[in-house]
């Protein structure tokens, strides 16, 4: 969706969870195939843009690929003119440094790290999922912090902002590959890697145009992906995790560690069926209803 908006000339596009006071969280997170049952898309165009024409084009493009549902009230879009400075300020005010656990922080790029000697992951938030606000990101970061990462190769499947790969590199990993179906996420991950001084050891790759059928990384010309990673982290929801099990397993060395998240605790049983032929020693952690599963590659 953000790709479509950017191709229409948007200066920025972000997708956020839609919240209302009368919609409890559990109703919003009902469908395992989507991050959110409903979402708000916020996009910025230059003031000279013909917004009516853009909306018509976007509706036409989106109609076939990803049908959009609008609110019962019937209004499909709210358009507002915003001064540059006010928009920047309001985005910035909504992100603050976040302590994930002792010694591990996510810090927006315009803030001073509250604990300069900690592992500080500097992010330009808002471009892609992975600001540290979601429980699944925090679960993955805490799990990474418990692994012996020094000198390890890490693959971050569904990298979003790159937050997990960047954290792994700052915690000692020697090399990381971040992949995502979303071009904006890949751009954002690269940008954030630069902010953290880890760009030289962080490769990014867009893995297929369709989120439903991303091609294997080898098909994207990456020759060194099979059985070559020590750690694979994939925070990408139940649907893709069910589809990707054998492929994610193939990227890991024997005894490599997999971290799976993006699933609800109650969804683990179904996901386990797909991963059990390849992994053992499963451990499940949770925050609220979200789960993080750690497993160890059990065959070669
Ligand atoms: C929940 S976000 C996780 C972002 C970040 N890794 C984090 O933990 O905060 C999931 C990301 O996976 C990407 N994604 C979804 N399905 C995918 C698939 N089948 N293959 C690769 N990436 C996918 C999405 O575009 C999104 O950026």
Automatic annotation (TrEMBL):
SUPFAM superfamilies assigned to the protein according to its UniProt record, in alphabetical order: S-adenosyl-L-methionine-dependent methyltransferases
Methyltransferase found in the keyword field: yes
UniProt entry keywords in alphabetical sequence: Cytoplasm, Methyltransferase, Ribonucleoprotein, Ribosomal protein, S-adenosyl-L-methionine, Transferase
Matches recorded under Pfam families: PrmA
GO MF term list: protein-lysine N-methyltransferase activity
A GO CC term assigned to this protein in UniProt: ribosome
Superkingdom of source: Eukaryota
Record GO biological process: methylation
Segments crossing the lipid bilayer: none
PANTHER family membership: ELECTRON TRANSFER FLAVOPROTEIN BETA SUBUNIT LYSINE METHYLTRANSFERASE
Family to which the UniProt record says this protein belongs: Belongs to the methyltransferase superfamily. ETFBKMT family. Belongs to the methyltransferase superfamily. PrmA family.
UniProt xrefs under NCBIfam families: prmA
Name this polypeptide is given: ETFB lysine methyltransferase
Organism, as annotated: Coccomyxa subellipsoidea (strain C-169) (Green microalga)
């Amino acid at each position: 969706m953000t790709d479509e908006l950017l191709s229409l000339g948007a200066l920025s596009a972000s997708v956020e969870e839609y919240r209302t006071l009368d919609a409890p969280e559990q109703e919003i997170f009902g469908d395992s195939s989507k991050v959110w049952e409903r979402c708000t898309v916020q996009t910025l165009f230059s003031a000279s843009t013909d917004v009516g024409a853009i909306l018509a084009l976007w509706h036409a493009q989106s109609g076939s690929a990803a049908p959009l549902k609008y609110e019962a009230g019937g209004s499909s879009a709210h358009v507002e003119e915003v001064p540059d400075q006010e928009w920047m300020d309001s985005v910035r005010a909504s992100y603050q440094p976040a302590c994930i656990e002792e010694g591990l922080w996510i810090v927006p790029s315009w803030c001073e790290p509250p604990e300069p000697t900690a592992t500080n992951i500097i992010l330009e938030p808002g471009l892609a999922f992975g600001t540290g606000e979601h429980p699944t990101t925090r679960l993955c970061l805490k799990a990474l912090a418990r692994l012996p990462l020094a000198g390890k190769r890490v693959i971050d499947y569904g990298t979003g902002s790159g937050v997990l790969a960047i954290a792994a590199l700052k915690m000692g990993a020697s090399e990381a590959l971040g992949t995502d179906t979303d071009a904006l996420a890949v751009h954002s991950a690269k940008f954030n890697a630069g902010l953290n001084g880890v760009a030289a050891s962080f490769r990014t790759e867009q893995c297929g145009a369709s989120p439903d059928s991303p091609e294997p990384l080898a098909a994207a010309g990456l020759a060194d992906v099979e059985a070559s990673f020590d750690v694979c982290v994939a925070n990408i929801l139940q649907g893709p995790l069910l589809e990707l099990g054998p492929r994610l397993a193939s990227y890991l060395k024997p005894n490599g560690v997999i971290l799976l998240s993006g699933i609800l605790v109650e969804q683990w049983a179904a996901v386990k069926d797909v991963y059990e032929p390849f992994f053992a020693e499963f451990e499940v952690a949770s925050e609220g209803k979200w789960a993080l599963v750690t497993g160890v590659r059990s065959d070669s």
